[in-house]
Write a structure and sequence with these properties.
Layout (H helix, E strand, L loop, with lengths): L9 E8 L7 E8 L2 E6 L1 H8 L4 E4 L4 E4 L1 E6 L11 E2 L6 H14 L5 E4 L10 H7 L5 E4 L5 E4 L1 H4 L10 E3 L1 H7 L7 H17 L2 E9 L1 H12 L6 E7 L7 H13 L4 E9 L28 H13 L3 E6 L2 H15 L26 E4 L8 H7 L2 E4 L9 H10 L1 H4 L5 H6 L4 E3 L10 H9 L9 H8 L1 H6 L15 E4 L16 E6 L2 E5 L8
Parallel strand pairs: 1-4, 6-12, 7-8, 8-9, 12-13, 13-14, 14-15, 15-16, 16-17, 17-18
Antiparallel strand pairs: 1-2, 2-3, 5-19, 9-10, 10-11, 19-20, 20-21
């Protein structure tokens, strides 16, 4: 075997889990000019790379393909990292001091904050008026569904609680009054978010809801070389418009194609949240308060999915309730059915002009509750199940509220990650940050230690964060194999050799994108 002529070759040695079924394990890999050029034993790597190659030894750690966060909001939600943070503050004195300090250093026309805790201390419009008298101010909870506003923020907004304590749509209506962030602000928010993602070993992500202005900020970041992860953008579909918007999305997709950027996904919101009784269910909520509603008429959904499918978009749908799940699966099935009478009636106009067989990688995200009858359809339709393991933490109050809202019978099917996989479906994992942490290891531990029958294995979760997630996003970096991009993460321990309940203690030593470090732990030596 001849040595490489380039002195820049990099050799990684250690316990390598390639996620490539053809060659699942290795002891060394060689990277040259951003690509993996060898995967095998140490002797073979040394012979190929030559004596001048740089070498990194993982020791007792583990080497994996870089992780994928298949559903996250890094730019718009990343703006929170630039805002006043009240997380963990639960006394009037501490909150007041933090708000005053933020107001003193902020030069914006509005003062925004996050991490507000409703009910933890006296808070109303007048309290915030005293703290921020000179401009509009709005503080939201971590999930963004509740808010605390002052009088200037409420001015001109109809139908909101004059107390300044806001919920759901009222928060959105107040936000609409505020100026949009500048492109520079969006890019700074993205830079901060990507640094966190890279620190957890993430090298690829899907921004699950963007509009044209956010796409432009991403384009600028990509051109400037600021993207430290591969990014797929899901353009948000307007539920109140028809197929005419697809032509606009095609043009934006073409415009957004860059070095590490694509915009070939389309995002639908089909319903709301189970704990808030806004998810669309097949049967009424346990308290008899209705069954929620779909946010888009099914005939319009079918027409848009069919058109987007024909244009080659990855359709990405927010679905929480079992009725929304079924509507999403139905829309994909109708798009692919080619007027198959076994699937839809020959008189069903929604089946007309169906698109027939093709490489589909459409995704349903969240899957709060799934009717058991729909579990096999994920595999049959090649629909990817995109779940967030941290949504299913047993002590999570939101999960408890959702279980109560559904009743004991349906609560069994909350976030059925393992059941979908057992039925043959492809599962990918994600954070949906800021709704949960971006910490991949917290999420893997949550899935592995979840009570049966929905618990997973470490191997299954690694596949959900690497190989399968890359496939779902049309990326080729989900395995360690010759010719693939050198997107690799080195961990400080082997996840297969530790207690499942200590997975959260795992630390990333280095994250490589195209063979170059985008994150390196303090004290971890890197060869020059």
């Amino acid at each position: 075997m001849q040595a490489l002529a380039l002195a820049a070759a990099l050799v990684l040695r250690g316990s390598i889990w390639t996620m490539d079924d053809a060659h699942p394990r290795a002891r060394a890999l060689v990277i040259d000019r951003g690509r993996i050029v060898f995967v095998g034993d140490e002797a073979g790597a040394a012979a190929l790379a030559g004596p001048n190659a740089r070498t990194v030894d993982a020791g007792a750690g583990m080497i994996l393909p870089g992780f994928h966060d298949s559903h996250v909001h890094p730019m718009t939600s990343g703006m929170r990292l630039l805002q006043c943070n009240l997380a963990g503050l639960k006394s009037s004195e501490k909150v007041s001091a933090a708000v005053r300090a933020c107001a003193a250093r902020s030069k914006g026309s509005w003062l925004f904050g996050t991490g507000w805790t409703p009910g933890a201390y006296p808070a109303d419009r007048r309290t915030l008026d005293a703290l921020v008298p000179d401009r509009p101010a709005l503080f939201t909870t971590e999930d963004g569904f509740s808010g605390w506003a002052n009088s200037k923020a409420l001015a001109g907004v109809e139908g909101v609680d004059e107390s300044g304590i806001l919920r759901d749509d009222a928060v959105t209506r107040v936000k609409r009054r505020a100026p949009r962030p500048s492109g520079a602000e969006y890019r700074e928010a993205l830079r901060l978010t990507l640094a966190i993602e890279n620190g957890f070993g993430v090298t690829s992500l899907v921004d699950a809801s963007v509009d044209a202005s956010v796409v432009e900020a991403y384009r600028a970041a990509d051109r400037a070389g600021e993207l430290t992860a591969r990014v797929v953008l899901a353009q948000r579909v307007d539920n109140h418009r028809g197929e005419e918007q697809v032509a606009e999305m095609v043009r934006l997709r073409r415009r957004a194609k860059g070095r590490r950027l694509r915009a070939d996904a389309a995002k639908f919101f089909l319903d709301g949240e189970i704990d808030r009784h806004t998810a669309a269910l097949l049967a009424p909520y346990a308290d008899g308060s209705g069954r929620g509603e779909l946010m888009i008429a099914e005939d319009r959904l079918d027409a848009l999915v069919r058109r987007l499918d024909a244009e080659g978009f990855i359709v990405h749908m927010h679905v929480m309730g079992d009725r929304a799940v079924r509507a999403g699966l139905d829309a994909v099935e109708r798009a692919a059915s080619a007027n198959d009478s076994r699937v839809v009636s020959a008189n069903d106009s929604r089946a007309a002009n169906a698109n027939g067989p093709r490489d589909r990688r459409h995704q349903l995200a969240h899957l709060g509750v799934v009717d058991p009858a729909d579990l096999p359809r994920f595999a049959r339709l090649s629909v990817v199940a995109d779940l967030q393991p941290l949504f299913a933490l047993p002590d999570d109050p939101v999960l408890a509220a959702a279980a109560k809202a559904l009743g004991a019978g349906r609560a069994r099917w909350l976030y059925p990650l393992a059941s979908i996989r057992a039925a043959g479906g492809r599962v990918v994992a994600s954070s949906d940050w800021p709704s949960t942490s971006m910490n991949v290891f917290d999420a893997i531990e949550a899935a592995v230690t979840r009570a049966p029958p929905e618990s997973s294995t470490v191997a299954e979760m690694l596949a959900a964060y690497t190989r399968d997630a890359a496939w779902a996003a049309r990326q080729d970096d989900g395995v360690i194999a010759v010719g693939r991009p050198a997107d690799v993460v080195v961990l400080d321990r082997n996840l297969f050799q530790i207690s499942p309940r200590s997975i959260h203690e795992t630390r990333v030593l280095v994250t490589l994108l195209d063979g170059e470090p985008v994150y390196r732990a303090s004290g971890f030596e890197w060869p020059r």
